[in-house]
Amino acid sequence: MISLEPIKTLKIKEFRNLLMGRFFIVLAFRMLATLLGWWVYQLTKDPFSIGLIGLSEVIPAVTSALYAGHVIDMSEKKKLLIICNYAYVFLISLLLVPAFANIELHFTGHQITFYIYGVIFFTGIARAFLGPLVPSMIPGIVSKSSLPNAITLNQATFLGSSISGHALGGFLIALITIKWTLVVIISLLLVASFFFFRLNRQPSKLKKEEVNIKESIREGISYIYKTKEILGALCLDMFAVLFGGAVALIPVYVEEVLKVGVEGLGMLNAASDVGSAIIILTLSMIPLRRNQGRILLAVVAGFGLCIIGFGLSRIYWLSFFFLMLSGMLDGVSVVIRGTIVQLKTPDNMRGRVLSVNSIFIMSSNEMGQFESGLAAKLLGVVRSVVFGGSMTLLIALIVGSSNPKLRKMQY
């Protein structure tokens, strides 16, 4: 049965401002990810260099995440969100130096990438705070009964901007070059700040003098460990996407395997997000009613099979199809996982739990990018992608057989 509840949730002005701000900031991030992968590969012609982009971001992001969760729970969230957004503006502006200065005349491609990695390292710290902030603000804006709808719409917004960012990034690189694409990215971040300024304040519900930092962090980790549904969902995400991160190697695939060049980069980068957007828009109107745990395990296994298919394909549109189908399956997974985490988390530790959640997400995505680059160097590009898809399938089987609470989960 089609539900109109998500449309009612969009009538909340505060929620719309949050979604619009997130749309523009994710649009900028996805354009930047497409740009960096292409830029670094053009500088080095080394797939492993692409993997180092993820590693340079994930190390500071993961090591800062637990402290970030404590700060989020203790802070006024609107102010913190704006600070993080402007930190990104400043850091990405530093990339304009190598882009505009033609320093290729004085430095090698590998030397320039070290500067890029250094900038991305500091964006990882900002991301540790920014990643959990938006989802932690949603329960303060919508009612608990509207939370599943809000999560679905939040994810739909993310995917819409992600699709647009990947496609637009590839298009703009070809049209106006890397340096002017960076200017567009910075401009989008400034647009996001306009919507964030229109949000209401969300003060902390905790008193600073009553909370010890170490105890606060320990409490968040302990809660996740004891709540097997959350733990299982996060482990499934981390290990499955860690090994199934074929998207990181798309800059290599478009040149060496599919031989379509930068013109095909944006569309192929956006393929999985197109699939995710289709399925999430469907789920916003026709939500899952039962057996969400079993469905989660099935779609992760199917995701692994799609990655194997992509790895073996030599036809551009067939590769696009496999990535789009993988995105559809991942979209179902994202909605289920996000709903489990939000519904099972009390308000007073939402920042800490979502920060641990962000560790799993960042570990899977950015470490997956590093794993893909390393595996491509050791095994070759095609074999590394097939290996990753096979491991994803295996992880789904292991988690499904070892976590009955997750398997039986319904909401």
Helix fraction?
over 70%
Total beta strands? 0
Largest sheet: none
Distance between the termini: 17 Å
If you compute it from the alpha carbons, what radius of gyration comes out, rounded to the nearest whole angstrom?
20 Å
Class from secondary-structure proportions: mainly alpha
Q: DSSP strand (E) fraction?
A: under 5%
The string of secondary-structure elements, in order, is HHHHHHHHHHHHHHHH
Coarse morphology:
globular
Mean pLDDT: 81
Describe this entry's structure for a reader.
- With 411 residues, the protein is mostly helical.
- The protein contains 16 helices and no strands.
- The protein has helices at residues 5-9, 13-44, 47-74, 77-93, 96-100, 109-137, 147-197, 213-226, 228-243, 250-257, 265-285, 292-312, 316-343, 350-379, 381-402, 404-407.
Brief overview:
The protein is 81% helix and 0% strand.
Supply the key terms:
mainly alpha, single chain, 411 residues
Which helices and strands appear, and what pairs or packs with what?
Blueprint: H1 5-9, H2 13-44, H3 47-74, H4 77-93, H5 96-100, H6 109-137, H7 147-197, H8 213-226, H9 228-243, H10 250-257, H11 265-285, H12 292-312, H13 316-343, H14 350-379, H15 381-402, H16 404-407
